[in-house]
Every structure is written in C-alpha cells, then in structure tokens.
Amino acid sequence: MTEIVLYGYWRSSASFRVRIALQMLGLAYETVPIDLLASAHKDPNYLRINPQGLVPSLRIDGHILTQSLAIIEYLAETRPENGFLPDTAAGRQRVRALSYAVAMDVHPICNLNVVSHVVHLTGEEGARTEWMIKFIGSGLQALEKMLDDPTSGRFCFGDTPTMADFCLVPQVYNARRWGIELSTFPRVARIADACNAMPAFKAAHPDAAKR
Amino acid sequence: MTEIVLYGYWRSSASFRVRIALQMLGLAYETVPIDLLASAHKDPNYLRINPQGLVPSLRIDGHILTQSLAIIEYLAETRPENGFLPDTAAGRQRVRALSYAVAMDVHPICNLNVVSHVVHLTGEEGARTEWMIKFIGSGLQALEKMLDDPTSGRFCFGDTPTMADFCLVPQVYNARRWGIELSTFPRVARIADACNAMPAFKAAHPDAAKR
C-alpha cells in the first residue's frame, strides 16, 4: 500500500479542496504542515517538492503532484466511480467551468502574496479587507448567476458533490472569514450548507486540519 | 455540420488559448468580437451567453461553453487523438499542473479589471506596468523551474504541443508586451519559439485575430 502524504496549510483554499477529495475517497493520508506565515513554502527542501513554492503537494502512487485541481483530476481518473466529474463530456465541461470560476477567477486574485502587495502599494492595511470584499463578492455574484441553470441541483452539478463543490466550499469559508454577506448569493449559500453537512467536508475543514 | 462560433477578444489570453486549440484541430469557426475596451462583455445579450461576463465563449455541438481550459478539455475529449493531453494519468496531471501554473497563478492576477483596480487604488498609472512585471515575471520564473523536468521536451510536455503550451504562448505574448526580458527564462522562451513556428499558433495569434 502506498503511503499518501499531503503537504498543505490548514487555511489554504487549495489545500482544503484536496483534503475534501481525499476525504470523499476515504483515503488515509499523512499531513505535513507547510506554514505559509512562517515562509515554509520557500524552504529549499520544500521547493524541491513544489518548484512553484505553493501548497498543496501530494505524494501518491510514487508521484509528487502539484496544483490542487490537477491533483483532483488525477484522483478522479485513478479512483474512478467517485463522481468528482460527470459521465458526459458536456457535464464535465460544465463542472470544470464552475470550478474555474472560483479557482481561476476569484482565488488567485485574493491570494496572500497578491493582497499583501496591494497593502504594500497603498500603505493601508484596510486595503486588504476592501480587496477581499470586492473580488470575492463579484466572483461569488458571477458564480451565483452561473448556478441559475437546469444542471444545478442540490450541489453545483446535480445532486451529488463534484469538483465544483470542492472549489465552492473553501471560497465560501473565505467569504465568511472576510465578513461577506452570503444572503445575496442564495444558491451558493445553499450548496455550501449541503456540502458542509457531509462528513467528508467536515473532516476536511480548516478547523479540523489545524488540530 | 454544426457551425462553431467563438466569442472572443483578439488580445485576451484566454481567447488566444481557445483559438490555438481550434486551429490545431483544423476546425473552421466564425468569430464574434467582444470588445472588452468598449465593455461589450457587460452587454445583457452577451451575459446571457456568458453569465460571468468573460471571454471566450464557444458555441459548438449545440452547447454554449465558457472558461477557456474547460473548453479545451471538452475539445480534447470530443475530438480525440489530438494529443492536447497525454495518454497517462500522471502525464495528464503534469500537463494540467503546468497549464494552471499560468492560467491560475499568473493570468487572473494580471487581468484587466484587477490591474485597473490597482491603478485606481494607487492613483498611479505607472502601477500597471510595475504590477505586470512583478507578477508575470515571478510566474514565469516558477514555470521555468517546473520545466526543469525530464518530462519536458521540445514543448512543455514531450515533443508535441499540449494544453500547457496553449497557456504558455499567450502568457509569453503578454510578457513581451510589457517589456519583460525573456532571456532569464530560457526554457519558456525556447518552447514559445517552437510553438510560434507552427502554422496553428500563427493563425491563432492576436495580430491575425485582430484583422
């Protein structure tokens, strides 16, 4: 049996996504914490694992994998019947589009190093919260509109969780952290609630990963 | 035969990626220009096609598809034997990771609306160039390190173009536009040159799309 090792940070959205996928699959894994606030991601030993200096990285099946969504696609392909992606090409396209609406259009813009640079440029610590509210808010608003679609159900796509939900939940966690009012995004909020009621999502939560 | 329609903007990296894929497949398509500078992406008619108000969108096979990489994955699945993604799960994981190193970790941070907001916050037009140089530069540096890998060849993965190259080339086009010196990224520059010599990449280039 291969030992699975997740290099991640408890509060990182990208790490959170991969934890959800691993928990959904019921895979046991060891965690190696990479403390972003202590710059552990810039340590030469970690850069040999992840040349980008990002979290997460996953050691599995004799590979070291990087990039959360590329990891989830790998898990979806190598552990089939998991439903992370739908059965049809159009369905998969839709789930990927919803995933990227978060993972490309919101999350990178609100990443620690980007927002810290904005604070540096403006010289105002308050710029951090304003930035988060603006870009998470507009991103979730766009996602809310995308979810007004017949393919949406109890979850982002149909009635079982997919990769899109693995992206939505960490983003909603972040939105709440920055005090963003979710009542204006009822579909997003409802799907997050449905996910958060599931044991796999609970086990993957930052509060559980922090311990 | 289904008519294929690409809604895009000549200078948009995401539109450029999809043009490369369509050209690589030899698919004929009609272009509907969405002029971002004239806010055509915020027109209610376009928002019905793309609720996020982003380019590109692709009308194909009776679907309207959004999100450039989700479109490319769809084309890869429905027009097989194209080599956009490798034959193995580990290979596909690698190509996706390289793609996301550009499409998630560089491109969104340098998007028009983000950088315009930085200019607004700082009140300095010069902040635009500084931002581009910083984030494109550090992103290409990370990509350069990732490409120091036995799976890299004439192209990002092996000796035929994949989705990763469709992401790399528009980012290099942008880097040059902002005056970023590519000699410090020799692998990136070499791969971009190999791509740019191919007819499909030439046909997809912004200068060709602008006409």
TrEMBL record, chains A, B:
<dbReference type="GO" id="GO:0006749">
    <property type="term" value="P:glutathione metabolic process"/>
</dbReference>
<dbReference type="InterPro" id="IPR034330">
    <property type="entry name" value="GST_Zeta_C"/>
</dbReference>
<dbReference type="InterPro" id="IPR010987">
    <property type="entry name" value="Glutathione-S-Trfase_C-like"/>
</dbReference>
<dbReference type="Pfam" id="PF02798">
    <property type="entry name" value="GST_N"/>
</dbReference>
<dbReference type="GO" id="GO:0050077">
    <property type="term" value="F:maleylpyruvate isomerase activity"/>
</dbReference>
<dbReference type="GO" id="GO:0016034">
    <property type="term" value="F:maleylacetoacetate isomerase activity"/>
</dbReference>
<dbReference type="GO" id="GO:0006559">
    <property type="term" value="P:L-phenylalanine catabolic process"/>
</dbReference>
<dbReference type="InterPro" id="IPR004045">
    <property type="entry name" value="Glutathione_S-Trfase_N"/>
</dbReference>
<keyword id="KW-0670">Pyruvate</keyword>
<feature type="domain" description="GST N-terminal">
    <location>
        <begin position="2"/>
        <end position="83"/>
    </location>
</feature>
<dbReference type="InterPro" id="IPR034333">
    <property type="entry name" value="GST_Zeta_N"/>
</dbReference>
<dbReference type="InterPro" id="IPR040079">
    <property type="entry name" value="Glutathione_S-Trfase"/>
</dbReference>
<dbReference type="InterPro" id="IPR005955">
    <property type="entry name" value="GST_Zeta"/>
</dbReference>
<dbReference type="GO" id="GO:0005737">
    <property type="term" value="C:cytoplasm"/>
</dbReference>
<dbReference type="InterPro" id="IPR036249">
    <property type="entry name" value="Thioredoxin-like_sf"/>
</dbReference>
<dbReference type="Pfam" id="PF13410">
    <property type="entry name" value="GST_C_2"/>
</dbReference>
<dbReference type="GO" id="GO:0004364">
    <property type="term" value="F:glutathione transferase activity"/>
</dbReference>
<comment type="similarity">
    <text>Belongs to the GST superfamily. Zeta family.</text>
</comment>
<keyword id="KW-0413">Isomerase</keyword>
<feature type="domain" description="GST C-terminal">
    <location>
        <begin position="88"/>
        <end position="211"/>
    </location>
</feature>
<protein>
    <submittedName>
        <fullName>Maleylacetoacetate isomerase</fullName>
        <ecNumber>5.2.1.4</ecNumber>
    </submittedName>
</protein>
<dbReference type="InterPro" id="IPR036282">
    <property type="entry name" value="Glutathione-S-Trfase_C_sf"/>
</dbReference>
